[in-house]
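Write out the bound-state structure for zinc ion.
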Amino acid sequence: MLVLGIETSCDETSAAVVEDGRRILSNVVASQHEVHRPYGGIVPELASRAHLGKIGPIVDRALADAGLSLDDVHAVAVTQGPGLIGSLLVGVSFAKALAFAKNLPLVAVDHLEGHIRAAYLESEEPIPHPALSLVVSGGHTSLFLMSEEDSYELIGKTRDDAAGEAYDKVAKRLGLGYPGGPVLDRLAALGDPSVYRFSVPRFSDGSEDFSFSGLKSAVLRKIVETPVDPVAEGDDPTTRQDVCDLAAGFQRTVIECLVRRSETAAKRLHARAILVSGGVAANSELRTTFAALGLDLGIPVVLPRVSLSTDNAAMIAAAGYAKVSRNELSSMDLSADVELHLGEPLERRTTRYR
Ligand code: KG4
Ligand code: ZN
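---
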């Protein structure tokens, strides 16, 4: 079965064709980083407009790269949410139009489920369960227990900022532009994490939740108090040892939070595998630290390759395939939903978190 996936939840316009939920025939991602870089973060209205301009050509490219036409496709899968409402609506409307015109099944996919499916798409071996799945991106930092392949129980999430959001805000203040993750990743590798130390937040209730706003504020305060001058436009940040050291100290603490909480949860729940996905899973230090945790615990740690960690439509097509197989199809009434809560029990959907 050939599923066409469409992803427009944030600032990447992406389309992909995946066969039987496993074999990627094409995966085209058009980033809008240049559009948003001058603002140091995503401007929602500009994101929607950029999606509108790109969605048609990107879908055409994905079909052409796969050597297919729309007539060969068996289903259309699209990200329904969570994300930016205007951005999501572009993808959902486009997918509905395609499905209607070609009389194809339409499948709505939760963006987080898409990120998790990237691990299944990537893993050569079957993933043993129960598995622990960490989704760590610009909008989310959530830990799921998966007792089987399609079951998601939310066991921890950020109480404030997402990890990627903290990366983006720290980078913006240091004059490093948007997105912050890749550049701080590079600079951290040149820095000494012991120069600027930050503490890992702890919760007295013993929960597996995360928090990054305290760390972000501590780093921003350090920039002002030390002071660490922002990198001037056109300057090479790799020559700034203070910025590299700060990046290293910040990154070490983020990874410490992510890895230690995952380790505790994996032990408590007797997880037989750990999956790590989402844009921050592209981070090089995070990847080596999680790989080491897997060796320590004697269980596989699955980290999708970088191009499948950040937003892409192959993961949406793969998740869509699983839903078509379970006959979970959507009707033409489908609309975007910014408030999807994968695996979240009702009592946790409170303002305590947002
Ligand atoms: O999953 P994603 O592409 O979009 C969302 O669903 O949010 O994640 C984007 C986030 C951004 O905050 C970006 O700064 C971060 O992932 N990111 C990284 C790296 N590459 C992207 N963070 C740390 N290290 C990286 N190498
Ligand atoms: Zn994402």
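---
Residues 241-268 form the longest helix (28 residues).
Confidence is low (pLDDT under 50) at residues 350-354.
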